[in-house]
Amino acid sequence: MATSATIPLRRPLDLQRTLARTRPARVSAPGVWRATRTPAGPGTERLWLDGDRLRVEAWGPGADWLCENAATLVGEHADDSAFAPRHRLLAELRRRHLGVRLPRTEAVLEALVPTILEQKVIGKQARSAYRRLLQELGEPAPGPQPLLLPPSAATLATTTAASRSGERGCDGSPSRRPERAVPRSSRARRPRPRRWRRP
After folding, report:
1. Strands 31-38 vs 41-50: parallel, antiparallel or unpaired
2. Whole-number Å distance between alpha carbons of 142 and 180
3. Sequence ranges of the domains in the chain
4. Is the pTM of this model over 0.85?
5. Which CATH code for domain 3-96?
6. Cα-flanking dihedrals φ and ψ of residue 117, to 5°?
7. Most distant CA pair in the chain: distance in Å?
8. Which of 32, 60, 116, 152 could form a disulfide with 43 if both were Cys (CB 3.0 to 4.6 A apart)?
9. What does the pLDDT look like over 2-24, one tens digit per residue?
Protein backbone atom coordinates (compact mmCIF):
# COMPACT_ATOMS: atom_id res chain seq x y z
CA MET A 1 0.00 0.00 0.00
CA ALA A 2 1.36 3.40 -1.00
CA THR A 3 1.83 6.44 1.22
CA SER A 4 1.02 9.74 -0.49
CA ALA A 5 1.56 13.47 -0.04
CA THR A 6 0.72 16.70 -1.85
CA ILE A 7 3.07 19.68 -1.71
CA PRO A 8 2.08 23.21 -2.83
CA LEU A 9 4.79 24.80 -4.97
CA ARG A 10 5.72 28.46 -4.57
CA ARG A 11 7.64 28.75 -7.85
CA PRO A 12 8.08 26.88 -11.15
CA LEU A 13 9.54 23.38 -11.05
CA ASP A 14 10.96 21.41 -13.98
CA LEU A 15 10.64 18.05 -12.25
CA GLN A 16 12.23 15.82 -14.88
CA ARG A 17 15.32 17.96 -15.39
CA THR A 18 15.73 18.60 -11.67
CA LEU A 19 15.74 14.90 -10.76
CA ALA A 20 17.26 13.41 -13.91
CA ARG A 21 20.71 13.10 -12.30
CA THR A 22 19.57 11.72 -8.92
CA ARG A 23 20.56 8.16 -9.70
CA PRO A 24 19.07 5.73 -9.90
CA ALA A 25 16.01 7.59 -11.20
CA ARG A 26 13.66 6.68 -14.03
CA VAL A 27 12.25 9.72 -15.79
CA SER A 28 9.08 8.92 -17.71
CA ALA A 29 6.18 11.24 -18.48
CA PRO A 30 4.43 12.48 -16.54
CA GLY A 31 6.75 11.96 -13.59
CA VAL A 32 9.84 10.46 -12.03
CA TRP A 33 10.41 7.15 -10.23
CA ARG A 34 13.23 6.82 -7.68
CA ALA A 35 14.49 3.93 -5.55
CA THR A 36 16.68 4.87 -2.61
CA ARG A 37 17.80 3.96 0.88
CA THR A 38 16.46 6.28 3.58
CA PRO A 39 17.26 6.50 7.33
CA ALA A 40 14.01 4.56 7.84
CA GLY A 41 14.82 1.84 5.31
CA PRO A 42 14.53 1.25 1.56
CA GLY A 43 11.82 3.01 -0.39
CA THR A 44 10.50 3.79 -3.84
CA GLU A 45 8.79 7.03 -4.76
CA ARG A 46 6.87 8.36 -7.71
CA LEU A 47 6.70 12.13 -8.14
CA TRP A 48 4.61 14.10 -10.63
CA LEU A 49 3.24 17.60 -11.11
CA ASP A 50 -0.42 18.46 -10.79
CA GLY A 51 -0.74 22.13 -11.68
CA ASP A 52 1.07 24.11 -8.98
CA ARG A 53 1.32 21.08 -6.69
CA LEU A 54 3.81 18.25 -6.42
CA ARG A 55 2.27 14.84 -5.77
CA VAL A 56 4.19 11.95 -4.25
CA GLU A 57 3.47 8.26 -3.78
CA ALA A 58 5.92 6.04 -1.91
CA TRP A 59 6.32 2.40 -0.98
CA GLY A 60 8.41 0.42 1.49
CA PRO A 61 9.77 1.06 5.00
CA GLY A 62 11.08 4.46 3.87
CA ALA A 63 7.77 5.63 2.40
CA ASP A 64 6.87 8.07 5.17
CA TRP A 65 10.37 9.55 5.16
CA LEU A 66 10.25 10.05 1.38
CA CYS A 67 6.91 11.85 1.55
CA GLU A 68 8.07 14.05 4.41
CA ASN A 69 11.25 15.02 2.57
CA ALA A 70 9.90 15.39 -0.98
CA ALA A 71 9.90 19.21 -0.77
CA THR A 72 13.57 19.15 0.25
CA LEU A 73 14.36 16.74 -2.59
CA VAL A 74 13.09 19.16 -5.24
CA GLY A 75 14.58 22.28 -3.65
CA GLU A 76 11.29 23.79 -2.57
CA HIS A 77 12.79 25.19 0.63
CA ALA A 78 15.63 26.94 -1.19
CA ASP A 79 15.21 30.69 -1.63
CA ASP A 80 16.56 32.21 -4.86
CA SER A 81 14.58 35.45 -4.65
CA ALA A 82 17.77 37.45 -4.13
CA PHE A 83 19.35 36.09 -7.32
CA ALA A 84 19.00 38.85 -9.91
CA PRO A 85 21.72 38.34 -12.57
CA ARG A 86 22.92 41.53 -14.24
CA HIS A 87 25.03 39.87 -16.89
CA ARG A 88 23.03 39.28 -20.06
CA LEU A 89 24.23 35.68 -20.45
CA LEU A 90 23.34 34.73 -16.89
CA ALA A 91 19.94 36.35 -17.24
CA GLU A 92 19.31 34.41 -20.46
CA LEU A 93 20.38 31.11 -18.87
CA ARG A 94 18.05 31.74 -15.96
CA ARG A 95 15.19 32.43 -18.36
CA ARG A 96 15.87 29.29 -20.40
CA HIS A 97 16.22 27.00 -17.39
CA LEU A 98 13.53 28.42 -15.16
CA GLY A 99 12.28 25.60 -12.94
CA VAL A 100 15.53 23.62 -12.87
CA ARG A 101 16.63 23.34 -9.25
CA LEU A 102 19.44 21.75 -7.25
CA PRO A 103 17.98 18.59 -5.71
CA ARG A 104 18.87 17.36 -2.24
CA THR A 105 18.56 13.61 -1.80
CA GLU A 106 20.23 13.32 1.63
CA ALA A 107 21.86 10.14 0.19
CA VAL A 108 25.54 11.04 -0.05
CA LEU A 109 26.89 7.59 -0.86
CA GLU A 110 24.33 7.05 -3.65
CA ALA A 111 25.54 10.25 -5.31
CA LEU A 112 29.20 9.63 -4.58
CA VAL A 113 29.61 6.21 -6.25
CA PRO A 114 28.49 7.22 -9.79
CA THR A 115 30.42 10.48 -9.41
CA ILE A 116 33.62 8.53 -8.69
CA LEU A 117 33.04 6.36 -11.75
CA GLU A 118 32.52 9.44 -13.94
CA GLN A 119 35.85 10.85 -12.77
CA LYS A 120 37.64 7.66 -13.77
CA VAL A 121 36.26 7.01 -17.27
CA ILE A 122 34.24 8.90 -19.90
CA GLY A 123 30.52 9.43 -19.42
CA LYS A 124 29.10 6.56 -21.48
CA GLN A 125 31.47 4.01 -19.94
CA ALA A 126 30.80 5.36 -16.45
CA ARG A 127 27.03 5.08 -16.88
CA SER A 128 27.42 1.56 -18.25
CA ALA A 129 29.64 0.58 -15.32
CA TYR A 130 27.14 1.99 -12.82
CA ARG A 131 24.24 0.14 -14.46
CA ARG A 132 26.25 -3.07 -14.23
CA LEU A 133 27.07 -2.37 -10.59
CA LEU A 134 23.34 -1.93 -9.88
CA GLN A 135 22.49 -5.16 -11.67
CA GLU A 136 25.09 -7.16 -9.78
CA LEU A 137 25.00 -5.59 -6.33
CA GLY A 138 21.63 -3.83 -6.14
CA GLU A 139 18.52 -5.24 -4.46
CA PRO A 140 14.89 -5.20 -5.65
CA ALA A 141 13.17 -2.03 -4.51
CA PRO A 142 9.71 -2.02 -2.91
CA GLY A 143 6.74 -0.88 -4.96
CA PRO A 144 5.11 -1.66 -8.30
CA GLN A 145 8.06 -0.82 -10.59
CA PRO A 146 10.98 -3.21 -11.28
CA LEU A 147 13.60 -0.85 -9.83
CA LEU A 148 16.85 -1.69 -8.06
CA LEU A 149 18.12 -0.13 -4.85
CA PRO A 150 21.70 1.17 -4.95
CA PRO A 151 24.21 -1.07 -3.15
CA SER A 152 24.36 -0.45 0.58
CA ALA A 153 27.49 0.74 2.34
CA ALA A 154 27.95 -2.74 3.80
CA THR A 155 27.76 -4.33 0.35
CA LEU A 156 30.23 -1.88 -1.16
CA ALA A 157 32.58 -2.31 1.78
CA THR A 158 32.87 -6.06 1.11
CA THR A 159 33.22 -5.78 -2.66
CA THR A 160 36.48 -5.09 -4.47
CA ALA A 161 36.65 -3.51 -7.90
CA ALA A 162 38.21 -5.21 -10.92
CA SER A 163 41.99 -5.03 -10.96
CA ARG A 164 42.62 -4.56 -14.68
CA SER A 165 42.10 -1.19 -16.31
CA GLY A 166 39.58 -0.90 -19.16
CA GLU A 167 38.31 -4.48 -18.99
CA ARG A 168 35.41 -3.67 -16.68
CA GLY A 169 34.97 0.05 -17.11
CA CYS A 170 37.11 1.33 -14.23
CA ASP A 171 40.56 0.55 -12.96
CA GLY A 172 41.41 -1.18 -9.70
CA SER A 173 43.70 1.42 -8.16
CA PRO A 174 43.01 1.12 -4.42
CA SER A 175 42.91 4.88 -3.89
CA ARG A 176 40.26 5.34 -6.57
CA ARG A 177 37.81 2.49 -6.08
CA PRO A 178 34.18 3.37 -5.24
CA GLU A 179 34.24 1.15 -2.16
CA ARG A 180 37.01 3.33 -0.71
CA ALA A 181 34.31 5.98 -0.16
CA VAL A 182 32.64 3.83 2.47
CA PRO A 183 33.67 4.85 6.01
CA ARG A 184 36.12 2.42 7.57
CA SER A 185 33.85 2.00 10.55
CA SER A 186 31.28 0.24 8.37
CA ARG A 187 33.87 -2.34 7.34
CA ALA A 188 34.61 -3.69 10.80
CA ARG A 189 34.52 -7.48 11.05
CA ARG A 190 33.78 -7.78 7.36
CA PRO A 191 34.02 -11.14 5.57
CA ARG A 192 36.59 -11.84 2.91
CA PRO A 193 36.02 -9.34 0.02
CA ARG A 194 34.28 -10.64 -3.05
CA ARG A 195 35.14 -9.33 -6.49
CA TRP A 196 32.83 -7.31 -8.69
CA ARG A 197 33.40 -8.23 -12.32
CA ARG A 198 32.07 -6.31 -15.25
CA PRO A 199 31.96 -8.34 -18.48
Report:
1. antiparallel
2. 28
3. 3-96, 108-195
4. no
5. 3.30.310
6. -60, -40
7. 58
8. 60
9. 999 999 999 999 999 999 888 77
